[in-house]
Amino acid sequence: MENSKIEWTDHTFNPWMGCQHVSPGCDHCYAEARMDHQYRKVQWGPHGERKRTSEAYWKNPVKWNATACAFRREHGHRPRVFCASLADVFDNQVEPEWRQDLLCADPRVLRTGLADTN
């Protein structure tokens, strides 16, 4: 989400929604409360379905990167992006390809927004 309401970040990016709920520390999870119980967008837990966000949404970090210099001039710092506020990047119920897409190390993808760099 561009211009996040979370005070310590500027944007949030959620590659998918959903999580395992792995420990008692998860008992009061805000993401589960909102996305599962309140909005019913995704079922939490080991048997819940993870939902990948749209291809258009995945272009936001590329856009934020392209405007980072202007953002820094205006705000005095680089844009801060909270990744996976509604998910666990290392959730073992996530399709491995999704994580690979997220962790792509090819800087050309970040600079151009192109998924195919061949």
Detail the topology: elements first, then pairings:
Blueprint: E1 11-13, E2 16-17, H1 30-38, E3 51-52, H2 55-58, H3 60-66, H4 68-75, E4 81-83, H5 96-102, H6 107-112
Parallel strand pairs: 1-4
Antiparallel strand pairs: 2-3
> Which strand-content bin applies to the residues?
5-15%
Radius of gyration over all CA atoms, rounded = 16 Å
With helices defined by DSSP (H or I, 4 residues minimum), what is the helix count?
A: 6
Structural class: mainly alpha
Helix content: 25-40%
Biggest sheet strand order reads: 1-4
Termini distance?
30 Å
Average residue-wise pLDDT = 86
Oligomer: single chain
**Low confidence ranges:** 113-118
The count of β-strands is 4
* Overall domain count: 1
Biggest sheet descriptor: 2 strands, parallel
Helix/strand order, N-terminal first: EEHEHHHEHH
Which geometry do the CA atoms define? globular
